[in-house]
Amino acid sequence: MNNCQNSEEDRNFITDTIKSIKRINTDHIESKENLEQIIQDFVCNMNEIWFKHLKIINITRHLKS
Predict the structure, then answer these.
(1) Contact 35, 29 (CB under 8 A)
(2) Closest among 46, 53, 2, 52 to 23, alpha carbons compared
(3) How do residues 43-58 score in pLDDT, each as one tens digit?
């Protein structure tokens, strides 16, 4: 993938995703429940990041395909 083709929005999304991954603390995974909680927290963070960077596109009848 050519990084020159990435928009600033893409780079911001990737940067926020990497930050979220780096914040994951795996030092104390002692049980399945701990792991499930870590994964659930990550999924919630990714949802927030996704919606933060989501572009809303309004489709109108005048929009070209």
Answers:
(1) yes
(2) 46
(3) 999 999 999 998 777 7
